[in-house]
UniProtKB/TrEMBL annotation:
Name of the featured protein: SDR family oxidoreductase
Pfam families: adh_short
Organism: Amazonocrinis nigriterrae CENA67
UniProt keyword Glycoprotein, yes or no: no
UniProt keyword annotations, A-Z: Oxidoreductase
Homology family: Belongs to the short-chain dehydrogenases/reductases (SDR) family.
InterPro entries listed in its UniProt record: NAD(P)-bd_dom_sf (IPR036291), SDR_fam (IPR002347)
PANTHER family for this protein: ALCOHOL DEHYDROGENASE
UniProt entry tagged with the keyword Oxidoreductase: yes
Species lineage: Bacteria, Bacillati, Cyanobacteriota, Cyanophyceae, Nostocales
Any GO MF annotation of the entry: oxidoreductase activity, acting on the CH-OH group of donors, NAD or NADP as acceptor
Length: 257
């Protein structure tokens, strides 16, 4: 098992959900954290809490991963003490609406594609060269069961997560011969702000997604990410699919009345 003590871990989408849960579990393991997200106040609150509880060294970046220039600037301008990133957690991602494809909203499509695919690519492109030059590193991409199985209304979101799956596989092949590890962690139903974002803040509709179900928690997913990055250096966990017991596939969910 690899120690994360003083390793530098960059987490995107760190201000909520799985990103926040990853930050907590890594802070508890003694890692140094670069936390990136759009919501600055939420980042600051998280950093204050982690510093108070664990004494964690933290560097914050207000960042929209869709903005390539901003990503380039954020990585190239990291202070020297923070520039040697050991682990990249590409967690930033979202879904918008459940419209049929032929009735879809173009803005929703672009937001999902720009965040889920292009944002992940930008971070990978600017961080991984440093890993290659140092001869060490690990990239963890947060995928989804939606990248393996389509579901009604999921069209473009499922397409973006299928892209994450194949980009992860391609990156693993491109890095063959290096010691850099590449992992995709693909959850099913996780109760986060995901559904509220999907339904543009409609809390009532979002709550119905998890009604009668015991979904995964962000901590459950963070626990799997932690397992993947702490294996022996010669071990690569290529892909993990995890779902709640109440879920059997992207479309099959058992709900208690």
């Amino acid at each position: 098992m690899i120690s994360l003590q003083n390793q530098i871990i960059l987490i995107t989408g760190a201000s909520s959900g799985i990103g926040t849960a990853c930050a907590k579990v890594f802070a508890g393991a003694g890692a140094k954290l670069i936390l990136a997200a759009r919501r600055w106040e939420r980042l600051q609150q998280l950093a204050d809490a982690l510093t108070k509880e664990f004494g964690t060294d933290i560097h914050l970046i207000q960042l929209d991963v869709r903005d390539r220039n901003a990503v380039e600037s954020a990585i190239s301008n990291l202070p020297a003490a923070w520039s040697n990133i050991d682990i990249l957690i590409n967690n930033a991602g979202l879904s918008r609406s459940l419209d049929k494809l032929h009735e879809g909203d173009f803005q929703d499509w672009e937001e999902m594609i720009d965040t889920n695919i292009k944002g992940l690519l930008y971070l990978t492109r600017y961080v991984v060269p440093g890993m290659v030059s140092r001869g060490r590193g690990h990239v963890v991409n947060l995928g989804s069961i939606a990248g393996h199985q389509a579901y009604p209304g999921g069209n473009v979101y499922c397409g973006t997560k299928a892209a994450v799956k194949l980009i992860t596989e391609g990156l693993k092949q491109d890095l063959l011969g290096t010691s850099i590890r590449v992992t995709s962690v693909d959850p099913g139903m996780v109760e986060t702000e995901f559904s509220q974002v999907r339904f543009h803040g409609d809390t009532e509709r979002a709550d119905k997604v998890y009604q009668g179900v015991t979904p995964l928690t962000p901590d459950d997913v963070a626990d799997v990410v932690f397992f993947c990055v702490t294996r022996s250096p010669h071990v690569n966990i290529n892909e993990v699919i995890l779902m709640p017991v109440d879920q059997a596939s992207a479309t099959q969910v058992y709900r208690r009345s």
